[in-house]
Design a protein that fits this description.
Helix content: under 10%
CATH class of the domain at 77-229: Mainly Beta
CATH architecture of the domain at 77-229: Sandwich
Number of helices: 2
CATH superfamily of the domain at 77-229: Exo-inulinase, domain 1
Shape: globular
Radius of gyration: 41 Å
Largest sheet: 8 strands, antiparallel
CATH topology of the domain at 77-229: Jelly Rolls
Order of helices and strands: HHEEEEEEEEEEEEE
Distance between the termini: 124 Å
Length: 230
């Protein structure tokens, strides 16, 4: 038997190795990939709650009441007539003008209104509610709750509803701060001066409208005007 040379044996070994099926040299299986959680959606921007006027500021702090005037601005009102309404400290005043008004921009149906008023000697003023026309305020097209201690007609003095009911009691208000509380609910109109009922009547002619604060001769001041819808 012929012997195989070492060189030939080496070549045969290399040939056999080259003909073997290819094998993965890695001994570890690939780890499964984990899906990444989607990025969190950023919160939507919140609308600004910065109040633009006295009324908006009051609604943020006390939602059941709207402050119409607190000594800062008259943005809740339109001015009708020639009066010069001036803000002094925490009140607004006008002196000596006829048929001039601060008229609310809003119209109201059922509400509770509170305010302070200071009439000078002989002052003629009033608070008008449910007026039919915001540009033509009068006691015929709405209701006037009067401020006029020295009215020659006692039926129309302070606390009355002009042309409808006289005051139930006579209250002097000149040259001092006083409170008015006026409630309009359905047909019922209720007025209190300094906590005393001066008018309580059912009137069904004028259902809604703006509220107006009058200067009709003499000095009148108003402050702390706020309203609560019913």
């Amino acid at each position: 038997m012929k012997s195989v040379s070492p060189a030939l044996a080496c070549l045969v070994g290399l040939s056999l190795t080259a003909c073997q099926p290819g094998q993965d040299v890695s001994t570890e299986e690939a780890a499964p990939q984990t899906a990444e959680a989607p990025a969190a959606t950023p919160p939507a921007p919140q609308p600004s709650m910065e109040p633009q006027n006295t009324t908006q500021a009051s609604l943020l702090s006390e939602p059941s009441w709207a402050v119409l005037f607190a000594g800062h601005d008259l943005s809740s009102f339109s001015e009708v007539g020639d009066a010069e309404w001036n803000i002094i400290d925490d009140y607004v005043e006008a002196d000596g003008y006829l048929q001039s008004y601060l008229v609310t921009r809003g119209h109201y149906t059922d509400f509770h209104l509170e305010l302070d008023f200071w009439p000078g000697s002989g002052a003629n003023s009033g608070i008008f509610i449910r007026n039919d026309n915001a540009d033509a305020i009068n006691a015929q097209d709405g209701y006037e709750i009067n401020i006029f201690d020295t009215n020659e007609n006692p039926n129309n003095r302070t606390g009355s509803i002009v042309n409808h009911v006289p005051p139930m009691t006579s209250i002097s208000t000149e040259e001092q701060w006083n409170t008015y509380e006026i409630t309009a609910q359905g047909d019922r109109i209720l007025a209190r001066v300094n906590g005393t009922v001066t008018a309580d009547v059912e009137l069904d002619v004028h259902p809604n409208g703006p509220i107006a604060f009058q200067n009709n001769g003499g000095l009148i001041r108003f402050r702390n005007i706020r309203i609560r819808p019913l």
